[in-house]
Amino acid sequence: MEILKKTPVTAVLIVINLVVFFLAELFGSSQNTAHMLRIGAMYEPLIIEDGEWYRLVTCMFLHFGMAHLLNNMLVLLVLGTRLEPVLGRTRLILIYLAGGLGGNLVSFGLAVRSGDYHVSAGASGAVFALMGAVLYVLLRSHGHVQDLNTKQVLIMAGLSLYLGFASTGVDNAAHVGGLVCGFILTALLYHPAPVSSRGPGMWEM
Fold first, then answer.
1. pLDDT, position 139
2. Active-site residue 144, yes or no?
3. Which of 11, 15, 95, 106 is deepest in the core (most CB within 10 A)?
4. CA 189 to CA 127: how far, in whole Å?
5. Which pTM does this prediction carry?
6. Contact call for residues 39 and 80 (beta carbons, < 8 A)
7. Are 128 and 163 contacting, i.e. CB atoms less than 8 angstroms apart?
8. Which of 63, 107, 120, 175 is catalytic?
């Protein structure tokens, strides 16, 4: 796709998720809990007792089944291809990874506090971080990011959160945590120069 050539970070993230999914399927089943644990899904007792903190990152690239993968990749495609030209490659990857990690830490902390442990995986925390990033950029750009507007993104975020809370087996803490972390990270990293009345605006790289 031509648009992915213009947004290489988004393209690479999608390819990595696809490759990891097909490798998971090649050596087992992405819907088998034991197999997913072996290859890096998040499970709080293994982090607490065995110090396997890497799971907070590896779980972001694993998915339970094709539908789970395609849903996250579709949203990543929509948001990433709009955000990358605005934020730049470095900011996008930082927000995606750090925001996803932040969402997983929120989920981890709440699970430890409640004692309600679960095996979890998926890029949705990182994808929600991009959603938070879009919301912040919209606030700074008078309500539009390319062909996305504030109403569209709010509907997307609200519907995604609603479906998560209305469903079972969904890590809603990672979703909300990712959304908030993405918004905060973008506020810290994204500082567009004001538009000059004497010429075209300049953007910091």
1. 86
2. no
3. 95
4. 17
5. 0.88
6. no
7. no
8. 175
Nearest to 91 by CA among 200, 191, 194, 18: 191
Question: Which domains are assigned to the chain?
Answer: 2-189 (1.20.1540.10)
More confident residue, 191 or 176: 176
Side chain identity at residue 77, one-letter code: L
Assign 3-class secondary structure to 118-176.
Answer: CEECCCHHHHHHHHHHHHHHHHHCCCEECCEEHHHHHHHHHHHHHHHHHCCCCCHHHHH
pLDDT at 48 > cutoff 90: yes
The neighbour count for residue 91, using CB atoms within 10 Å, is 21
Average pLDDT over residues 72-77: 94
Give yes or no: 160 in active site.
no
* Cβ atoms 43, 97 nearer than 8 A: no
How many Å apart are CA 191 and CA 197, to the nearest integer?
18
The sign one gets for the Cα dihedral 82, 87, 92, 98 is negative
What pLDDT sits at residue 205? 40
